[in-house]
Amino acid sequence: MSTPQSEQPPLKRPRTDEVVPLTPHPDLWYDDGSIIVIAQSTMFKVYKGRLSQCSSVFQDMFCLSSSSTQELLDGCPMVHLSDSAQDVTHMLRAIHDWQQVVIFSVLFNA
Question: 100 lies in which domain range?
Fold first, then answer.
């Protein structure tokens, strides 16, 4: 039994060349930051040195990158991550706000 042409699903998914506008994260955008991390449509302007200090993955990434081929925005190199913006937000808060986490755990024995 065959189905009519109009009822068959498309063979390919539609192509989406739509450009998604990037928006800075409201809390994790430091004017004096030195690198812009992009996850989904969210940009985070943070500190390259702090990322390198806290993460061997970022440290290796920065050592391997070539400054001549890097995209720049606002004078800072950009790094695109495949993680969700929510996951990157949590990671960057843990890295950049570590003092608040320590204070919270000391005050509340967490």
Answer: 23-108
Number of domains in the chain: 1
How many Cα atoms occupy the beta-carbon half-sphere of 41 within 13 Å? 6
Task: Give whole-number Cα distances, 6 to 1, 12, 14, in Å.
Answer: 15, 15, 17
Q: For all residues of the chain together, what is the average pLDDT?
A: 80
Record the pTM: 0.70
The pLDDT tens digits of the residues spanning 17-67 come to: 667 799 999 999 999 999 999 999 999 999 999 999 888 999 988 888 766
Residue 103, token pair as written in the block: 């204070």
**CATH classification at residue 87:** 3.30.710.10
At 37 the three-state DSSP class reads: strand
Contact 45, 31 (CB under 8 A): yes
* Three-class DSSP category at 81: strand
